[in-house]
Amino acid sequence: MNLTPECAFCIVEHHWRLVKDLPDDSRRMEYMREVFRALAESSDKYSAPIPTARLQTIYCRMFGIEDPYREEKRRFNALMLEKMPALKALCLENPDPLALAIWMAMAGNYIDYGILREVDENRLTQMLANPDPEAVNARELAHIREDLSRAQRVLYALDNCGECVLDRILLEVMLAQFPHLEITVLARSENVLNDATVEDALSVGLDTVGRVIGNGSNIGGTQIEFLGNDAREAILGADVVFAKGQGNFETLSHSGLNVYFLFLSKCPHYTKWYGLKHMHGALINEQRFFSH
């Protein structure tokens, strides 16, 4: 996908919120110039995660902050790990554990500080307390079952912390039904927003379901030409790819790979553009969705 004017406005607004309360006008202006410069120098062929990665690096360097979302990441990982046993039990008790686990993984994509100004723990708890596995696209769910029955190698691209605990539940359910699968979990190599890094993924036990690797950068998506060698080989060699969140949707759209995108449709621009329902889960296959 390409960077759109709506994306540019959203990036500017997000970075203004980071510095608007600073007392030093000159520092605020210096940083906002960097924001505008990054957008002006962005290639039209790349989507928002590319300039966002550059801007996080600049922000951390200018203000001496290693990980701006460290506390949010730890808090939501801890919260979801606490909820994990009960949520997994719900899946296993359901007539269709895979459908419910997919729904939970999509609902967990609510934990996103890149798009949302606030992530409300109460709203998240309420969402997870009212599961709706029937909202999962039945046609794509059938394709997933068929693909997994024939697949050997699966790559699962993570998005956010907290959410990645629900990804672990989905992968455990998946392995229970398709134990022959070889799973690779793809995380960010460096900090960006509240995305899950390799360290974050290991901290919630994702190495118990597969090999955990980094994408080679702090890009909040999976832009194939910018992946490290290990990540590029893993995704190009996968029979099935699951990609969480909007950043992966933006960077892997039109890739031609057998990708299932799982996310909560939070961005009003993409919601309208692709005919999705705002704040509803989306399960989309890259090849079928973009072949129209």
Summarize the structure.
The protein is α/β, with parallel strands linked by helices.
Roughly how much helix do the residues carry, as a percent range? 40-55%
Q: Uncertain runs with pLDDT below 50, 5 residues or more?
A: none
What would CATH call the architecture of the largest domain? 3-Layer(aba) Sandwich
CATH superfamily of the largest domain: Uncharacterised protein PF01937, DUF89, domain 3
Structural class: alpha/beta
Overall geometric form: globular
- List how many beta strands DSSP finds: 6
Radius of gyration: 18 Å
Q: H/E order of the elements? A: HHHHHHHEHEHEHEHEHEH
CATH topology (level 3) name of the largest domain: Rossmann fold
Strand content: 5-15%
Instruction: Please tell me the total number of domains.
Output: 2
Strand order in space, largest sheet: 3-2-1-4-5-6
Structure report:
Helix content is 51%, strand content 11%. It folds into 2 domains: 5-63; 70-289, Uncharacterised protein PF01937, DUF89, domain 3 (Rossmann fold, 3-Layer(aba) Sandwich), CATH 3.40.50.10880. Helix 11 (245-252) links the parallel strand 4 and strand 5. The model has no long low-confidence stretch (mean pLDDT 94). It has helices at 5-19, 25-40, 49-63, 70-93, 97-107, 121-129, 138-150, 163-177, 198-203, 229-236, 245-252, 268-273, 286-289; strands spanning 153-157, 182-187, 211-214, 240-244, 259-264, 281-285. The protein is built from 13 helices and 6 strands. It comes from Candidatus Pullichristensenella excrementigallinarum.
Descriptive labels:
2 domains; globular; Rossmann fold; six-stranded mixed beta sheet; 51% helix; 13 helices
